[in-house]
Write a structure and sequence with these properties.
The protein is of the alpha/beta class and 491 residues long. It is built from 15 helices and 20 strands. The protein is elongated and about 85 Å long.
């Protein structure tokens, strides 16, 4: 969708969107339409339950003396936040598509100090909600496709709004890249092709290095490589560098689990629902989208993004329960369940990242455990950390972006569940506290670097629409971590 900003506009067709404050108080732009329409707005509100509360909307067929096809009243309520304005923009998309509108003019009124940010956030909401993964739909009729192609946001100080929109647009592009990656079928997106997609980020200034299996074997990454033994696809480790600060500034590192399809391996998953396991690479998808967002908005920080890319398949060469592998760290792992594979991938990716790049901190993201869904449902991501400051910053970024996170504990008692007689550790800790023991496993490979682990299994895919997130791949984590970086690590 094309988003533009203007000081004024004269719509000839499509929809005109104006705000109404709580108590049916018309904003200046709504008052102009009220006058031009001969009181049509007041009559429509009187005949409906619309009062101007936040989240309400009312559509009116435009009278003959109004050039547009439709007038949309949007409730402003009281005390709107940036997220509220994003939701406002997002909610317009399905409404205008349902009406068949091709373009819309959105008028933004209010205090001069909030106009630019409000307009920018409405634009961001429009952009994020208009995302659609439809490249494999070949038989859609015209009336099944979205119609809205253009939105002009009219605001006093359009130049300031345009400037405020630019970084939000960059983040939205990162979000939509993540959604694309997570939505791709596993016959299209596999470790090699994912690495190729990441390599395209070189076009926007990101340096990309790809390690093949031979290089990982030489480094001793047998924990990661063991997961991909049963696949016809070679595993990959991708390292992306964004250098937006001085060369002597230590980087912030993000590490993503990228299991492009997860059958469970020899510990085979049940058949029903296995098709969803195409998005077991969600953590790697988020890291890739985040890197794009940071590069597009020229973030003043050095960042490392690492992707551990594997496919977990069962064949005669596949890893077995009972196998023992030696990780890059030298620690040995006894495999008790080949479906607890994401932590095996992250073990080597985390160790490699902290050992080679000496980051200020590391954050990993993974669709790691079903247990986190039992604990938190689909509303919050669970996270674990060895650092209280990072935890506080993540929680604050979650509240600010609406991508909320909830901290869970780490403790020696949970760590003891990983003990085994045959090796330094086993890769599962039993049914009790499954998300926590998974995090305890990962902590053994961070080597005291300030670190957080985000388990995003419950929030990577959605079966329903939200204001700025159409159902499907959510890209949960891109906005969260962009905000985390912007607020705490950019100069």
């Amino acid at each position: 969708m094309k988003i533009s900003f203007a000081e004024k506009a004269s719509p000839k067709s499509g929809a005109v969107v104006v705000g109404v404050e709580e108590g049916k108080k018309l904003t200046p732009s709504a008052q102009e339409l009220e006058k031009a329409s001969g009181g049509a707005l007041s009559r429509a509100m009187k005949a409906s339950s619309f009062t101007g509360k936040k989240g309400q909307s009312l559509q009116i067929a435009a009278p003959a003396n109004v050039a547009a096809d439709r007038i949309v009243l949007v409730g402003l309520g009281k005390g709107l936040t940036d997220l509220d304005f994003q939701s406002m923009g997002g909610n317009l998309v399905p409404a205008l598509n349902a009406a068949g509108d091709k373009e819309a003019v959105v008028y933004v009124d209010g205090g001069a100090d909030v106009l630019a940010e409000a307009a920018a956030n409405i634009g961001a909401g429009l952009l994020m909600r208009s995302y659609r993964f439809d490249r494999y739909r070949t038989k859609e009729t015209a009336d099944q496709k979205p119609t809205l192609k253009k939105a002009t946001i009219v605001v006093s100080g359009a130049a300031a709004a345009r400037k405020a929109f630019k970084p939000l647009e960059a983040v939205a592009e990162g979000v939509n890249l993540t959604r694309d990656l997570v939505s791709e079928p596993p016959n299209v997106l596999h470790p090699e092709s994912f690495a190729e997609e990441a390599a395209k980020l070189a076009e926007i200034g990101i340096t990309v290095e790809i390690l093949n299996e031979k290089k990982m074997e030489k480094l001793g990454m047998h924990s990661l490589l063991g997961v991909g033994l049963g696949s016809a696809r070679e595993s990959r480790l991708v390292v992306m560098h964004w250098n937006g600060a001085a060369s002597n500034s230590r980087p912030v590192a993000f590490v993503g689990k990228g299991v492009t399809f997860d059958t469970g391996g020899i510990s085979l998953k049940p058949g029903p629902g296995m098709e969803d396991m195409k998005w077991d690479m969600g953590g790697a998808g988020v890291v890739t989208g985040l890197m794009k967002a940071l590069a597009l908005r020229k973030a003043k920080v050095n960042v490392i993004g690492v992707l551990g890319l594997v496919e977990n398949m069962p064949d005669g060469a596949a890893q077995r329960p009972g196998d023992i592998v030696t990780s890059m760290s030298g620690q040995t792992i006894e495999i008790h369940n080949t479906d607890a594979e994401g932590r095996l991938v992250l073990a080597d990716a985390l160790w490699y990242t902290q050992d080679k790049y000496k980051p200020r901190l590391m954050i990993d993201l993974a669709t790691l455990t079903g247990a986190i869904i039992i604990a938190l449902g689909h509303e919050y991501a669970g996270f674990f950390s060895n650092d209280d400051d990072i935890s506080a910053m993540l929680s604050a970024a979650g509240e600010a972006t609406g991508e909320k996170v909830w901290r869970l504990p780490l403790a020696e008692a949970y760590d003891n569940q990983l003990k085994t007689d045959g090796a330094d550790m086993k890769n599962i800790g039993g049914r009790a506290a499954g998300s926590i023991t998974a995090a305890q496993f990962l902590q053994r490979f961070v080597n005291k670097v300030p670190w957080a682990h985000l388990d995003i299994a419950g929030v990577t895919w959605s079966s329903k629409d939200a204001p700025t997130v159409p159902k499907g791949a959510t890209a949960f984590g891109v906005r969260l971590l962009d905000k985390f970086v912007a607020d705490n690590y950019e100069k």
